[in-house]
Amino acid sequence: MLVPLYETVYDRLEVGTGTRLLGLGCGSGLALLLAAARGAAVTGCEADGQRLALARRRFQPQPQWGRRVRPAAGTHLVPGLPGVAEYDAYDVVTAFDPGEPVAELRPALAAVAVGAPRGTAVVLAGWGPPERCSASRVLRVAERLAEPRGPASFGYGMRLSGRDDLVDLARDAGLRPDGSGRVSCPFGYPDLDSAVRGLLSTGLFDAAVDATDQQQVDKEISEALHPFRRADGSVRMENVFRYVVARV
Fold first, then answer.
1. Could you give the CA distance from residue 208 to residue 216 in angstroms, rounded to a whole number?
2. Which CATH number goes with the domain that contains 100?
3. Which range of residues forms the domain containing residue 93?
4. List of residues 6+ apart from 100 with CB closer than 8 A
């Protein structure tokens, strides 16, 4: 769903052969795969073991690729975060995951500011204004159902929806903002069941399931998606995401 965001950022920074890119919270590796397809040497860091395993599978050779297509050289996928000294190896650092808790992201960005070479581009991404993000109405279901466990159990990334939040985050970490943009990233699914499964796969509803039960969460997600169903049964939510480019 965030491919338009990734491609817009990579075009703006001219990511390609010779680029050394680090993805913080790389998830299942799609953004890294797109960068590697442009010729970049990529490293991904991900704390979630299942997502990291999926990312590793994505970078393995596939029979349908054919003999002429090979995985990008210099690809590394690791758990946790690099040490401060290791950030010297990159010229682009991305933090695309809009659900990454600020409390966890800020120390990593501060380490980049200290360890990366001067001029290194650091990209932060977050949700746009709630009124421009249809998905925000559905994701509020997760916040409401998770409330019995307290707000700390939720950690959803809509907190980065203020106009200057990403800029402030970059400055707090010791980085210099150097441009920003907005990208349309619609969420589309072929049917309601696919939409429910897709939203659940983000992990943003895990706390809601723990606080209630799976059946209740499924039911309320389905009801919240009703306004976004189309005549052919598909589901489409229009969203805008922000990004900020900062420099070390």
1. 9
2. 3.40.50.150
3. 3-131+156-186+237-247
4. 24, 25, 157
What residue ranges in 116-205 does DSSP mark as E strands? 121-127, 176-184, 187-189
User: Residue 23 belongs to what H/E stretch?
Assistant: strand 20-24
What is the rounded CA–CA span in Å between residue 78 and residue 102?
21
Is the pLDDT at 101 greater than 80? The verdict is no
CB-based contacts of 97, cutoff 8 Å, min separation 6: 24, 25, 27, 125, 157
Alpha-carbon span 245 to 241, nearest angstrom:
14
> What is the total residue count of the chain?
248
pLDDT of residue 160: 54
- Residue 40's contacts (CB-CB under 8 Å, 6 or more residues apart) are 15, 16, 17, 18, 19, 20, 21, 72, 92
* Contact indicator for 170, 177 with CB cutoff of 8 Å: yes
Q: Is 41 a domain residue?
A: yes
- Count CB atoms within 10 A of the CB of residue 174: 14
- pLDDT digits 0-9 by tens, 175-190: 999 999 999 999 999 9
Domain membership of residue 82 (yes or no) is: yes
Q: 95-99, 129-133, 214-218, 243-247: lowest mean pLDDT where? A: 95-99
C-alpha pair distances (Å), 71 with each of 58, 76, 102: 9, 11, 32
The number of folded domains in the chain is 1
Query: Tokens 């706390």 appear where?
Result: 207
| Assessment of whether the complete model's pTM goes beyond 0.85 | yes
Domain-located, residue 217: no
With respect to residue 220, please indicate whether it lies within any of the assigned structural domains: no
Please report, for residues 37, 85, 133, 215, 224, the alpha-carbon distance to residue 113 in angstroms, rounded to integers and kept in the order given.
27, 11, 31, 45, 41
